Amino acid sequence: MTDTDASSDSPSGIRRRGLMLVLSSPSGAGKSSISRALLEQDSRLAMSVSITTRPPRPGEVDGKDYFFVSPERFQQMAEGNELLEHARVFDNHYGTPRGAVEAALRDGRDVLFDIDWQGTQQLESNAGKDLVSVFILPPSVEELERRLHTRAQDSEEVVRKRMSKAADEMSHWPEYQYIVVNEDLERSIQSVLSILNAERLRRDRRVGMAEFVNRMRRG
User: Is residue 187 a part of any domain in this protein?
Assistant: First the structure.
């Protein structure tokens, strides 16, 4: 683990505001694999658990992978300003509960988001400087289709829908701060970890830096 002075319990005592790390990509480009690796390799990063109106896929656990809610409950949360972002994707609704994320940022904890470009735009409007956005691209259209077939989670019809939507999703790459072309998964993971660690060192996130420097100047 790097950047040992980034949290409030470090020897230096420098406090840091948390950040929101967003990964987006067309389905099959690798953002879920990268997200899992980031969570395994960095204990200071926690996954934002979204709510959705779609039914669980095999193996998914309510409260861990998603909070599965009815369309009526989703609408109530959206109208009550309980969501930082929400969007409709493939006839289902997805959203990010506001309270847990805002509490994490205040405590200096970082939150990882696996969301699409629509959600990222809303987070950018709501989060300002807290947001760090990364778009994951596949190395080719052929490789993207191969990955969708290989993972065998979706029917042939769903794969076709995802491929037809991929071109539109990829057109939004200029809206992101960082771009990673996922030719090799391990290299891509390391690239995103480098982005994360660099962003943690940004001056405007280190809210305790002025106090730390003033203490040293006073001796």
Answer: yes
Q: Tell me the C-alpha to C-alpha distance, in Å, between residue 136 and each of 36, 147, 162, 185, 191.
A: 14, 14, 15, 11, 11
Q: What is the pTM of this model?
A: 0.81
List residues bridging with 136 in a β-sheet: 180
d(CA 3, CA 1): 7
215's enclosing H/E stretch is: helix 209-218
The DSSP code for 66 is: B
CA-based torsion, 157, 161, 162, 166: positive or negative: positive
DSSP 164-192: HHHHHHHTTGGGSSEEEE-SSHHHHHHHH
Q: What's phi and psi for 3, nearest 5 deg?
A: 55, 60
* Beta bridge partners of residue 89, listed in sequence order: 92
Single-letter code of the amino acid located at 117: W
CATH of the domain at 114: 3.40.50.300
Domain count, the chain: 1
Which tens digits make up the pLDDT trace of 89-146?
Answer: 789 999 999 988 999 999 999 999 988 888 899 999 988 789 999 999 998 888 887 8
**In terms of residue numbers, what domain contains 179?**
20-48+109-218
